[in-house]
Amino acid sequence: MDWTKAKNILIMALLLTNIFLIGTYLIQSEDWSNSDGKMEQVTIDLLKDKNIILNTNMPDEYQKMPKVTVQYDTIDKTLYEALLLDDAICSLPNVDDVTLKTSTETFLKECKIFTKNVAFDKIQRTEDMISVRYRNLVDGIPLESSYIIFTISDARIVSMDRYWLNPVELSDTKKSVIPASVALLRFMKEEESPDEKVVDEISMVYWVDSSSYEVESFVSDTAFPAWKISYNHGKISYIPAWEQ
Fold first, then answer.
1. What letter does residue 50 receive in the DSSP assignment?
2. Residue 238 contacts residue 227 (beta carbons within 8 Å)
3. 191: Cβ–Cβ under 8 A, 6 or more apart, which residues?
4. How far apart, in whole angstroms, are the C-alpha atoms of residue 110 and residue 104?
5. 197-207 and 52-54 beta bridge pairing
């Protein structure tokens, strides 16, 4: 047997095998780098087949998130009613956006309910009234079912409507959350009616299932990460986001 020739053949075979493995690896790496885009397009196509139109961008994925212990919060009604009668607090020099934000924030501070979680949301105007809304943020993530709404009429704060879940503790345990694409597929499964649904927005929130929450009680409950899917100009669906 010609060992030199056999050795050369073996070396050539090993080189060809390595080239094949490296090529396969590179192809697979390219597929993985494009997997997010492919998954997004597949999701959009599946949604279209079920008459669900995605009219917004797909959000980025989130890191592991905790759950939040919450408790219903109340205000001092006597203090609140006294503040509504205080012209120095409630009478506004004008109703531009800066004045509205500054004056309502002052009201919250005087009412002793302006915390780090209170965040300005938006101003809505009609012919007769102006609404100034605040929301509840936990590490930048909205805590659903929490709101403060001021009503301004004739350049005066006339009322404040408030429903507030006070975040008292974040869990030490954090879990991975499902991608928005998976949440949309679960939404598709839940919404099986043939009517067209246009998804206007999808965002990450903390959410307490209202069916299990005792309104205006001091019993603690838990808010979990969820994908909030807003569709058909006002309808909302919450998809739990913690991976089971």
1. T
2. yes
3. 52, 197, 237
4. 10
5. parallel
C-alpha–C-alpha distance, residues 240 and 37, integer Å: 23
Residue 150: closest CA among 127, 130, 175: 130
pLDDT per residue as tens digits for the range 47-98? 888 889 988 888 887 889 999 999 999 999 999 999 999 999 999 999 999 9
Burial annotation 214-228 (CB, 10 A radius, 16+ → b, else e): eeeeeeebebbbbbb
Helix axes 35-49, 3-33, angle to 10 degrees: 50
pLDDT tens digits, one per residue of 195-224: 889 999 999 999 998 765 555 555 788 999
> How far apart (Å, rounded) are the C-alpha atoms in residues 111 and 100?
16
CA separation, residue 96 to residues 120, 165, 236 (Å): 15, 29, 31
| CA 46/CA 49 separation, integer angstroms | 5
Nearest Cα residue to 104 out of 138, 72, 142, 118: 118
State which amino acid sits at residue 143: L
- Burial call 111-131: b when 16+ CB within 10 Å, e when fewer: bebbeebbeebebeeeeeebb
Distance (Å, whole) CA 74 – CA 165: 9
Which residue shows structure tokens 């203090």? 79
| Helix pair 97-110, 77-84: axis angle to 10 deg | 140
Bridge partners (DSSP) of residue 119 are: 135
Q: DSSP states of 195-209 as a string?
A: S-EEEEEEEEEEE--
For CA atoms 221, 63, 146, 59, the dihedral sign is: negative
Q: Which residue has the tokens 């300005």?
A: 120
